[in-house]
Amino acid sequence: MIDRAALEAKLAQLEIEHSDLDASILALQTQAHVDQIRVQRLKKRKLALKDQISKVRNELTPDIIA
After folding, report:
1. Within a domain: residue 43?
2. Domains contained in the chain, number
3. Among residues 17, 5, 26, 2, which one has the least CA distance to residue 52?
4. Which domain, by its residues, includes 47?
5. What is residue 64's predicted lDDT score, i.e. its pLDDT?
6. pLDDT tens, position by position, 7-41
7. Is the residue at 41 inside a domain?
8. How far apart are CA 9 and CA 25, in angstroms?
9. Dist. CA 46–CA 40, nearest whole Å
10. Which long-range contacts (CB under 8 A, 24 or more apart) does 52-61 make?
11. In this structure, is residue 40 part of a structural domain?
12. What average pLDDT score do residues 36-65 get?
């Protein structure tokens, strides 16, 4: 089993990267000449990070058998 502390550290790192991408996207969109291809790539990366964050959170949450 993967160490819980390692998963929590990975989750924190992914959340920071997700937040940084959000700020980068916002900054690009406020420029006069928006590079739409770059914005789309960043959004795609942000979505992939969101999926990874969900996966790690699911690993941290124990299965509850009802």
Report:
1. yes
2. 1
3. 17
4. 1-12+34-59
5. 76
6. 999 999 999 999 999 999 999 999 989 999 999 99
7. yes
8. 24
9. 10
10. 52/14, 53/11, 53/14, 53/15, 53/18, 56/7, 56/10, 56/11, 56/14, 57/11, 59/2, 59/7, 60/4, 60/7, 60/8, 60/11
11. yes
12. 93
Q: Encoding tokens for residue 38?
A: 């770059």
Give domain status of residue 4, yes or no.
Answer: yes
3-state helix, strand, coil in the chain (%, to 5): 75, 0, 25
Q: Which has more confidence, 65 or 59? A: 59
Q: What is the mean pLDDT of residues 39-60?
A: 96
> Is pLDDT at 65 greater than 80 in this prediction?
no
Sign for the CA dihedral angle at 17, 23, 53, 8 comes to positive
